[in-house]
Amino acid sequence: MTKYLNPFTDYGFKKLFGEEPNKNLLLDFLNELLKDEQGKIISLNYIKNEQLGSSDLDRKAIFDLYCENEAGEKFIVELQKTKQRFFKDRTVYYSTFPIRDQAPKNDWDYQLSAVYLIAILDFVFDDDKHEPEKYRYDVKLTDIDTCKVFYDKLTFIYLEMPKFTKTLGQLETRFDKWLYILRNLTEMEEIPKTLQEQVFEQLFATAEIARFSREQMRSYEDSLKYYRDLKNSMDTARDEGKEEGIEIGREEGIEIGREEGIEIGVKTVAFALLREGIDEDVILKATGLTAEQLAKLRRES
């Protein structure tokens, strides 16, 4: 067991950013993330996920963190541990909830408050692998010809954490420090001098596993086990999918296509998770498969 928790576990992420006593950690992170986007956020209020949506399908869209600032602007902060085929689609879908939430029941002129969706990724999108040094993507609705922002109240920010490889000596900004901590927290044994600031000292104190109660420790260990099992299953499935793709190509005398290789890997992941008894909703979220596709795989297994 390391000294500090893994922020890419569900428990670890919500322990650092989703609890009322640590709200200032999330506030500081968002202020650094959006420094060039807007003025300083003064306060945040958490919005409970169970208030979202009116249908059973809607209520399955559970956000990691959902909050709003003093101006009524909405923030969804998502942590994605493993690659998902339709993750970008899911973030666009999630952004519709805080938009619909703003519609009153009486007359309305359609004026909206801004919506931000921030995705912290423990993987790299396939389309972005050719840009190894670009780890942050800011996405808005823009005009194709002029590249000018057409609508500035809907923003998607994707942080591909495996690409952030700066060392302590290379950290230039406070935001750099945030990303460095998220990327390297489990490898630290003490607080580096360059990170000895009040907000980071609070983060390290919150993340110190030795301070956990017995119940907190049990919850974290369960979350850590799930994280490791999922990651191991994904890594194994990726290797098996690659080998299976090579074998298919050899048998058919052709070079297997990229999309077919991905499809094989996804199915292998789903099979592995089904064998582990992982909840179907979790498998759907991790793989991007539809319920019908998963049911078909279950019948074939």
**What's the Cα radius of gyration?**
21 Å
Broad shape: globular
Q: What portion of residues belong to β-strands? A: 5-15%
Distance between the termini: 35 Å
* Extended strand count: 6
Main sheet specs: 6 strands, mixed
* SSE ordering: HHEHEEHEEEHHHHHH
What structural category characterises the helix and strand content?
Answer: alpha/beta
| Averaged pLDDT | 84
Alpha plus pi helix count? 10
Low-confidence stretches: none
Proportion of residues in helical segments: 40-55%
Which strand order spans the largest sheet, edge to edge or round the barrel?
1-2-3-4-6-5
Task: Chart the SSEs and their pairings.
Elements lengths: L9 H8 L5 H11 L10 E3 L9 H4 L5 E5 L4 E7 L6 H15 L13 E7 L14 E7 L6 E12 L13 H11 L13 H10 L6 H39 L5 H18 L4 H8 L3 H10 L1
Parallel strand pairs: 3-4, 4-6
Antiparallel strand pairs: 1-2, 2-3, 5-6
Describe the structure concisely for a colleague.
The protein is α/β, with parallel strands linked by helices and 301 residues long. It contains 10 helices and 6 strands; from the N terminus they run ααβαββαβββαααααα.
Please provide a written account of the structure.
The protein is α/β, with parallel strands linked by helices. It is 45% helix and 14% strand. Strands 1-2-3-4-6-5 form a six-stranded mixed sheet, sandwiched between helices. It is globular and about 50 Å long. It starts with 9 loop residues before the first helix and ends with a helix. The mean pLDDT is 84.
